[in-house]
Design a protein that fits this description.
- With 629 residues, this protein is of the alpha/beta class.
- It has three domains: 147 residues, no CATH class; 284 residues, FAD/NAD(P)-binding domain (3-Layer(bba) Sandwich); 154 residues, FAD/NAD(P)-binding domain.
- It is built from 16 helices and 25 strands.
- The strands form eight sheets. The chain has a five-stranded parallel sheet, covered by helices on one side.
- Helix 12 packs across helix 13.
- The radius of gyration is 26 Å and the shape is globular.
Length: 629
């Protein structure tokens, strides 16, 4: 019997009901039939019964057949499955208690469960018999990974009751310094709590948020900023964005998400705000950290997670200009453009957004592009582009490029008719520009496309094609320099403006130095942060034990030089030095896990450190109340 690859759906990743894997025909990849049940099961916060049944593949969309399929899954060990139901009944009963009791026999057991779930209880009795015969080792333990693999035997995958397992006790003798409490810093902090790794985190700003807090000095966030990846592909593991969020959340919603995430996992108490790391020095086998307060701390390991978009890159134009020139990081509101002739230089996602703002507010608006690009609409056939594109991730690169290129040509037509240059590369070979508005404004004449800037001439800008325009304000959306200003220069080797690290994270020269967040991919970053944070934690634990595992990982770092381009020939530019394809990078992470015997993290991995009552969906849907605390 062939095991299908489990599909992690966006609904229920952090819910109290988790079905990790079905064998055979019970679950078909990308083909889970919806069913009709009572309207209350279709509320914004799904009922546990709905989440449970949603993962059972049934051809006849009826509750009776779903129950029959559940009976088969529970009693037929040729099709074995283990559920975690630890919080199903108002978070009061443990999974082991549920399966060990005569279902429904104890008074009050079903008080909080809707009628559609009650028929399922008798069919779960086989799970108790199965667990009586199998005592799996602790999930996620590096030392127990081989035993876990033997127990799984390639056939049965279990989700343990992680919520009630005792958390590891942090060791004060081995403490990690974490620099930054933006998205990458929060991911590493949560993972360290999960593994019981003691740490101090430093954030130079006043609160959680990083670049997403528009009030932070140097934040590149402008009023119209939205995620360019959709909410269903952009969340941290086990903590979905709330159902009421739009497909592409605003910067205010992302900031709220990050702050509630930190509260839900109790991360704020481990972060020192308004504290800048001024200097990091190597001392012996550890690290000396000098703070803006004058304090000096020492750590056995160090994680740099201070972010990539803090140091603007400004171009140098020949000539003189009588108007104003500034970087896009200083831009906030379309009101800044009123009555002005505005030129936006650069056609990344920020450049396109700002050009669209100028098209609406400026006296006249122009965008200067050094080459032709492929413009991807935010929705394709009614769903977010990244959701649509995920279906084609397993196709060969040439086929994906062929089909997506033809689709974009069908949707957008010939881009040169808008005054744009024809793309000089295939689709997917540059960082995706996801924008549905720029072609609209170009086609309506509210925005004019121009080639590269040639020279500045007083109040005018002369372009490389010889044309000139009178301009009052030039906004340079020309990206950022990646820097780690607090590290001594010789601690990290750089190549092409990017840190030369194993997988962009691990220092080969200093095995207890890690960088998280200086990486660019063609997909959302937060779940990559979770995956890499987990590898960092495992590497730290291995190094702490000073055993064979640590030596094996060091040898891997020096001998393994993976190609994570996914077979895509990216354009030659500094931005694409070290650029990674999400699918290829995920395969590399899995390859490292297999080599080291480190289990993959699964839905429910972070449940035991969730400190807010209820599941993550419940937390997310109560943002206003939590932020008011």
């Amino acid at each position: 019997m062939t095991l299908p690859t489990p599909r992690t759906t966006s609904v229920g990743n952090a819910q109290d009901v988790i079905l990790e894997q079905f064998e055979g025909d019970l679950l078909r990849q990308h083909d889970v039939t919806k069913w009709e049940v009572a309207p209350r099961l279709k509320a914004q916060t799904p009922h546990p019964a709905a989440l449970f049944l949603e993962r059972v593949h049934v051809h006849d969309a009826s509750l009776g057949n779903a129950i029959a399929a559940t009976r088969a899954a529970a009693d037929d060990f040729e099709i074995s499955v283990i559920f975690e139901l630890s919080s199903l009944l108002s978070g009061q009963l443990r999974f082991q208690q549920l399966i060990g009791a005569p279902f429904g026999a104890e008074a009050g057991l079903l008080d909080d469960v809707e009628q559609p779930l009650q028929p399922l209880w008798p069919h779960l009795s086989g799970l108790r018999r199965f667990l009586d015969r199998h005592d799996p080792p602790t999930h996620g333990s590096a030392r127990g990974s081989k035993a876990e693999e033997r127990w799984r035997g390639g056939r049965v995958v279990a989700v343990q009751d992680q919520q009630h397992r005792a958390m590891p006790t942090p060791s004060p003798d081995h403490k990690v310094g974490v620099i930054g409490a933006g998205p990458a810093g929060l991911a590493i902090a949560r993972t360290f709590k999960r593994y019981g790794i003691a740490f101090d985190a430093y954030e130079r700003h006043r609160a959680i948020g990083g670049i997403w807090d528009q009030s932070n000095p140097g934040s590149p966030i402008y009023d119209s900023t939205h995620f360019i990846s959709s909410k269903t592909r952009s969340n941290f593991l086990d903590f979905e964005m709330p159902a009421h969020y739009p497909d592409y959340p605003s910067h205010r919603q992302i900031l709220a998400y990050l702050r509630v995430f930190a509260r839900a996992y109790g991360l704020q108490d481990d972060i020192r705000f308004n504290t800048t790391v001024e200097r990091v020095e190597r001392i012996g086998a550890g690290w000396r950290v000098t703070l803006s307060t004058g304090e000096v701390e020492t750590y056995t390991s160090l994680v740099a997670a201070s972010g990539a978009n803090w140091h603007p890159r400004m171009p140098s134009f020949p000539g003189t200009f009588s108007g104003e020139v500034r970087h896009s990081s200083t831009y906030r509101s379309p009101d800044e453009f009123r009555g002005k002739r505005v030129l936006v230089v650069g056609a990344g996602n920020s450049g396109c957004d700002i050009a669209c703002d100028a098209a609406q507010s400026a006296r006249s608006a122009f965008i200067s592009l050094r080459r032709g690009y492929h413009f991807i609409p935010k929705h394709v056939f009614g769903e977010p582009f990244d959701v649509f594109a995920e279906r084609g991730r397993r196709w060969p690169v040439w086929l994906s490029q062929l089909l997506l290129g033809r689709l974009l040509r069908l949707l957008n037509g010939d881009l040169t008719r808008f005054g744009l240059q024809a793309p000089d590369h295939k689709v997917l070979e540059s960082h995706p520009i996801v924008n549905s508005q720029i072609l609209h404004y170009l086609s309506h004449g509210d925005l004019t496309a121009k080639p590269n800037v040639g020279v500045l001439d007083g109040s005018e800008v002369v372009f490389s094609d010889g044309s000139r325009e009178r301009i009052d304000l030039i906004i340079c959306a020309t990206g950022y320099r990646w820097q780690l200003p607090y590290l001594e220069e010789d601690l990290v080797r750089w190549a092409g403006g990017r840190p030369n690290l194993y997988m962009g994270v691990f220092s080969r020269e200093h095995p207890n130095l890690f960088v998280l967040g200086l990486m660019e991919s063609n997909a959302a970053a937060y779940q990559l942060f979770d995956q890499l944070a987990d590898l960092i934690a495992r590497a730290i634990l291995a190094e702490r034990d000073e055993g064979e595992e640590a030596q094996r990982f060091k040898a891997l770092m020096w001998t393994d030089h993976p190609n994570v381009s996914g077979g895509i020939r990216y354009v030659r530019s500094e931005r694409h030095v070290g650029y990674v394809d999400f699918g290829a990078f995920q395969k590399q992470i899995d390859r490292v896990r297999r080599h080291m015997g480190w289990a993959r993290i699964q839905p429910g991995h972070y449940r035991q450190v969730l400190q807010t009552p209820g599941d993550a969906r419940h937390v997310a849907d109560h943002y206003p109340r939590m932020l008011a605390r």
